[in-house]
Prior knowledge:
By secondary structure, this protein is an alpha/beta fold. The protein has helices at residues 18-34, 63-78, 80-84, 95-102, 126-134, and strands at residues 9-13, 37-44, 86-92, 108-112, 139-142.
Amino acid sequence: MDRDVSERRVVVGVDGSPSSYEALRWAVGYAGLVGATVEAVAVWELPGLYGWSGPAVDMDVDEDETGQRIRTEMAEVLGPDAADSVRTHVVHGNTADVLLRAAEGAEVLVVGSRGRGGFASALLGSVSQHVSQHATCPVVIVRTEKK
Length: 147
């Protein structure tokens, strides 16, 4: 992810979960207040890729198609005008590591409290917990409202 180091940036992790959509809304609102650019980062990682067995899924991920799907979802969440102002990045790797690298030099890293996996009753997801402990910038963890 090439970036201008003088530009103010807000990095937000998106994964299609309700929590990440709340984080995206928060990031756009905050960026508007401080005059920053929003960079939405979606990370894909194949389950089992680093384990003993080979992956049980097709390893060909169309990053362009995935990026378009993310932009479509962002337009539904934010509205088309706000979504057009968000830069999107689709990156392969470990989610926490990719987000930490993307957030280097950023004003803030924004993540949802819970992602797509894990235990719904847990206070924090593994990614939000990891980035909160290792980021070099402030981290905002956004929770979804209970219904």
